[in-house]
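Usage

Read records sequentially. Each one opens with the input sequence:
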Amino acid sequence: MSMGSFGLKSDLFHFRHNRFLKQVSYTCFLLLFLLLLAAPVSIANALQPVGTRYVTTTGSDASVDCSLAAPCRTVQHAADVATSGDTISIGAGTFGTVDMSFKGLTLTGAGMNATYLDGGNVATVVTGGYATYNISDLTIQNGRSSTYAAGVYLSNQATLTMDRVRITSNTGTGDAVGGLYAANSIVTLNDSIISNNTSSLGTGIKILQVGGTSNLTLNRVTMSGNNATTDIAAIYFSGTTLSITNSTISGNTSPLTSAISLSGGTATVLNSTISHNTS
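and closes with the structure output:
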């Protein structure tokens, strides 16, 4: 083979190699371009937490998943489509009642002065049982019931943690508690307010233990203005452990017990004020 023919073949090889590289580069560029076009959708999906349902005043219950792009209008519809462990993010505004029995969920609002769950003076506002719940940054108000509780009712074997929640202006008639009732459950309230609830039997919080375990923990909680017409105004506790820390129980009224009635279990009160309750 002559040096001249070798040189021609070498040049031809380099030409074909360079053309191949250009084709690969063009293909890679095209793929990158297409990926960039899809990026906004992918980023939006990535920013939406897995298992989060959204509720807004402008949403619609025609939504099948209560997603960020298609929020629901009611908290109940969001709870219905959610699965245990999901979070329901509730925007500012006033919303109705919700029953979360047998389904552990997290409810988070936009703040106790922005998000309101309202019973319309006809029904219990929040109902649950047999699951674990977290509720934060909202107000539970205007509930009404003749059984168990007007504000929050946990039927049995629940674990509830509330952070920055106000339970107010709920009315229990008959045997119902105004604020919160829980049986055989673990309840913790942090930085919350129980105020201006009314009933005949146990106005603020009632915790019962019947064949199970019930604990109540209050951290930085204010209970005031609760009024019982015949029984306990602030707290009735019949369980294992009652713990009250950095809290205030004041201005509650009842002809029987205006502050705390302890029927079984042990109670610890630290750095708290219990005063000016009237009975």
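Summary fields computed downstream for this record:
- The chain is about 20% helix and 35% strand.
- The two ends are 117 Å apart (CA to CA).
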